[in-house]
Recover the amino acids of this structure.
């Protein structure tokens, strides 16, 4: 294509013209933010155009390590991430297997329904679940009441806050994990499974000896996706718990520092540190999981 | 030989029987799970047609007696205004973003211009940034452009944010278009603009639809950026922000609150129902990026 020298030159020129909006986008929304955040993190800039912006060295970073609640928030985020990642991956795997083995005519509809919560806005999801968790008349309270079980105060009781948000998060996201596994399972050569069945392998045997190892790469992707999503996640926390100090995950703490207390310099330093921590943890998890890979 | 054959046949027969059993077992199990997952949505729908008293009397009954909850939600909750704002943002953002993705994909996939690898690499590296890193500089930029607390504070970043995965998928799609068609147009001496608009774009409709739907969903659902950028002007609030305000107003009017929820879910669910294929393909494509 466009092989003559003249055409090639023309194609290059037009290529750059067509790339203009993207080049603007990359400069404005990738380069500029990284550099600007980095600069801000070494200043004392708060938020208003009139606020001073003086270089103060590593003071913001010192503050993170000595006075801030950054690591408290990070610990909470890690706890949330660990539990959701495990539940979501395991549940998603079994759901995908059920979908894979069910009557084929029904697969299409179920796939569409089970993925539905994933596309709903977090705001809608949180309002709906606040209503379901409502301690007096909520759906869960009423349902458990039918069996004479006293429902806990889901979003109010300190012991139930974390399980409650994990339920909502899993409800919303497990469909994605399932779809990704389902695609991978369908890519497995059917003959491998059929010959195992003829050899008398049970459903469980096929699941754990064939499907689990063959889709291990997908497990890696799913774990990484849930992990990165979990560490970054704070919109559901914000929406369900407003500004409850007991549920202030690291993302929310950064958000509060920036838009609640208007200290942009500290928020920028924490955001960069968090981005670094997330990439290190993902690389580490990726390495760990690739050891389990057999194919 | 003969014996082996019958043995095999029996095994196959046994296999299909147990296979059918397994199929039914898994179908039932997943049906139960699906009901659990979908029930909160149905419960919201039935509650949206009830008065407070009716809800307390029997929360599980199904009736459609009070559709006026919807008009209350639309008027008192100002959902019409919210819808208008969200729609304005979403239409311009999706058109602008998709156009920009099409242009760069054409430049990478068809023109294969010098430098496309660098652009692609830069775009993909940007995907690993957390929103916290970008939001403060973005906010300062929007502030200096005097766009804060207007709908353009949303539209500008939504249009220009690099396409990332969407570009990779679309450029690959365009690379696989039949070369004869493109060469024919080259021999005709038609310009690159003509090639783009009359040849490549019409042939890329499936991937364009996919990109548009993915971007629609991201823009329509976004809560955090509008919260930051529109905080001081409730008149330009979008659906997710308005919903939270609406929740505060209707803490005990469950019927009206649920009607509002249904109204706000409706556009997303309608588009999902019509184009679920593209959503699910998007989910699978997300897996490739890892």
């Amino acid at each position: 294509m466009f092989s003559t020298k003249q055409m090639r030159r023309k194609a290059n020129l037009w290529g750059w013209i067509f790339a203009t909006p993207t080049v603007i986008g990359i400069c404005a929304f990738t380069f500029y933010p990284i550099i600007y955040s980095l600069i801000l993190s070494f200043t004392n800039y708060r938020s208003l155009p009139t606020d001073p912006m003086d270089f103060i060295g590593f003071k913001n970073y010192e503050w993170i390590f000595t006075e801030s609640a950054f690591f408290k928030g990070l610990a909470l985020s890690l706890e949330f991430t660990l539990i959701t990642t495990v539940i979501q991956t395991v549940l998603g795997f079994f759901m995908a297997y059920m979908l894979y083995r069910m009557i084929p005519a029904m697969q299409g509809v179920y796939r569409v329904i089970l993925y539905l919560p994933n596309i709903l806005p977090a705001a809608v999801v949180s309002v709906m679940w606040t209503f379901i968790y409502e301690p007096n008349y909520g759906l869960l309270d009423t349902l458990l009441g039918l069996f004479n079980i006293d429902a806990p105060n889901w979003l109010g009781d300190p012991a139930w806050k974390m399980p409650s948000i994990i339920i909502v998060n899993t409800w919303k996201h497990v469909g994605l994990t399932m779809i990704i596994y389902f695609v991978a399972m369908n890519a497995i050569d059917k003959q491998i499974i059929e010959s195992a069945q003829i050899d008398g392998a049970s459903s469980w045997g096929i699941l754990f000896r064939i499907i689990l190892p063959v889709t291990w790469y997908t497990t890696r992707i799913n774990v990484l996706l849930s992990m990165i999503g979990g560490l970054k996640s704070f919109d559901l926390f914000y929406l369900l718990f407003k500004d409850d100090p007991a549920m202030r995950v690291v993302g929310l703490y950064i958000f509060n520092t920036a838009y609640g207390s208007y200290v942009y310099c500290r928020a920028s330093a924490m955001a960069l540190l968090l981005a670094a921590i997330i990439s290190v943890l993902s690389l580490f998890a990726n390495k760990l999981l690739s050891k389990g890979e057999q194919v | 030989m003969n014996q082996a054959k019958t043995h095999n046949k029996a095994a196959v027969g046994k296999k299909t029987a147990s296979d059918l059993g397994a199929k039914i077992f898994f179908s039932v199990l997943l049906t139960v799970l699906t009901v659990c997952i979908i029930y909160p949505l149905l419960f919201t729908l039935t509650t949206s047609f009830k008065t407070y008293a009716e809800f307390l009397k029997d929360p599980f009954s199904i009736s459609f007696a009070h559709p006026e909850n919807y008009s209350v939600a639309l008027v008192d909750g100002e959902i019409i205004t919210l819808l208008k704002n969200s729609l304005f943002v979403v239409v311009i953002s999706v058109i602008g973003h998709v156009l920009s993705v099409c242009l760069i994909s054409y430049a990478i996939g068809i023109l294969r211009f010098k430098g496309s690898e660098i652009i692609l690499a830069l775009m993909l590296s940007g995907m690993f940034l957390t929103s916290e890193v970008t939001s403060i500089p973005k906010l300062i930029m929007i502030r200096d452009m005097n766009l804060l607390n207007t709908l353009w504070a949303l539209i500008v970043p939504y249009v220009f944010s690099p396409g990332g995965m969407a570009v990779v998928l679309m450029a690959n799609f365009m690379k696989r278009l039949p070369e004869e068609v493109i060469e024919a147009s080259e021999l005709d001496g038609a310009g690159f603009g003509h090639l783009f608009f009359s040849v490549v774009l019409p042939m890329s409709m499936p991937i364009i639809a996919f990109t548009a739907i993915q971007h629609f969903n991201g823009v329509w659902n976004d809560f955090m950026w509008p919260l930051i950028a529109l905080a001081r002007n409730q008149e330009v609030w979008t659906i997710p922000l308005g919903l939270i305000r609406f929740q505060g107003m209707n803490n005990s009017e469950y019927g009206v609150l649920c009607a509002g929820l249904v109204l706000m879910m409706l556009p997303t669910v309608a588009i999902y129902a019509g184009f679920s294929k593209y959503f699910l393909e998007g989910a699978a494509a997300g897996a490739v990026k890892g």
In short: DSSP finds 13 helices and no strands in chain A.
